[in-house]
Amino acid sequence: MSGPALVRTVLGDVDPASLGVVDAHDHLFLRTPRLPGQEMDSASAAEAELRAFATAGGGALAQWTPVGLGRRADLLPMLSRVTGVHLIAATGLHQAAHYAPEFLDRLLPRLARRFIADLTEGIHGSNGLVRAGMIKVAGGFHRLDPHARQVFTAAAEAHHLTGAPIGVHLELGTGAPETLDLLCTELGVPADRVILGHLNRAPDTRTHLRAAEAGAYLAFDGPSRAHHPTDWRLLDCLAALAEAGHADRLLIGGDTTTAAARATSGEGPGLPYLPGVLRPRIERELGADTAKSCFETNPARAFAITRPA
Fold first, then answer.
1. Is 248 marked as a binding-site residue?
2. Which end of the chain is more exposed for a tag (fewer CB within 10 A), N or C?
3. Closest CA to 252 of 221, 283, 292, 287
4. Is 25 one of the annotated binding-site residues?
5. Is 292 labelled as part of a ligand binding site?
6. Domains by residue range for the chain, with CATH
């Protein structure tokens, strides 16, 4: 038996229908050696960006920043309260290249326990505990290396215990079949608990259709300043999937990964672009029903957790 579906935000569990327009993949805070000098660590900048997002019609945002990359989970409740935007925090782990070897040596032997603790007990911070609402993992370019397989296995264990969805960074949009084979076929995670990210970066419609037919959610994160050459493919990818009957699998995120990409303190387009510009464009090109599915109906299901009765 299971209880009603919910979404675990940093201020507590909420009815999925209350999220409104959702940015399904973004970052308010991020710090990684892969992006030196481009750290996102300013609370005031994050607040300004969230306020602009809310003014443009945004209601909720999933921050995919995982363990060890400056996710600042302790600041998220305050930011949610002052802006009125629902925030979903992530546990999980990125590719090995984002971490010092000694950090991974300490963490990997207890990885599943860390994920489960973040989801059930909370992430420790200076302002108390904040529970994560999703698990973020990452594959490699067209492959899953041993590090990824270890992280995916721990994520699957945490999912089975908590019901939390798993968001997957697909490197340059590749590796969706391998990801679903491991998570779903080998590790038993239901496909509709998997969110495949960055798919517009490899606009392979056949692969997209296979993933949608399997039941996974497909997250197209554009526009992203770091990957803007793929933006022009976004609408065509969405149209192909919607025309094939898979509008119910689509999610949209911005994936803001550098301070320069913020709208309020950088060169943009930033968080407000999704509700203010991209959503109306999708509505105009693909119809109101598809836009509502991408930004409201689908993320309400994709980020839901079914709690034990």
1. no
2. N
3. 221
4. yes
5. no
6. 2-308 (3.20.20.140)
Q: What is the pLDDT of residues 181-240, one digit of tens each?
A: 999 999 999 999 999 999 989 999 999 999 999 999 999 987 777 777 678 889 999 999
Query: What is the token pair recorded at 48?
Result: 């300004």
Q: Is 0.70 surpassed by the pTM of this model?
A: yes
CB 231 within 8 A of CB 225: no
Does the annotation list 159 as a binding residue? Answer: no
